[in-house]
Design brief:
By secondary structure, the chain is mainly α. The protein has a domain of 54 residues. It contains five helices and two strands; from the N terminus they run αααββαα. It has a two-stranded antiparallel ribbon. It is elongated, with a radius of gyration of 27 Å.
């Protein structure tokens, strides 16, 4: 650290203004375990989440939806909703 000009040593005046992490960021400190911030694992839950199913479709139907590019599953969902 002494050799890094971008990380100078803190002065006594700077240290006198220092606050504990738990005091300056209480909500974040509540998410720590042994000094390590605990992040949720995986994607956040979607309140309107969809249900994964296995569905058999005729090849020509599937190809028609896939031929229009990304979003083919969403388009199938919309077609089924409209039906």
């Amino acid at each position: 650290m002494a050799l890094d000009p971008d990380a100078p040593e803190a002065t006594d005046e700077q240290l006198s203004h220092a606050r504990r992490f738990v005091d300056s960021h209480p909500a974040l400190a509540a998410r720590t375990k042994e000094g390590i911030i605990q992040r949720p694992v995986g994607r956040p839950r979607d309140p309107g989440r969809k249900v994964s199913v296995s569905l058999r479709l005729d090849p020509d139907v599937l190809e028609k939806f896939r031929s229009k590019g990304p979003g083919w599953q969403t388009r199938i969902n919309e077609a089924l909703r409209n039906a």
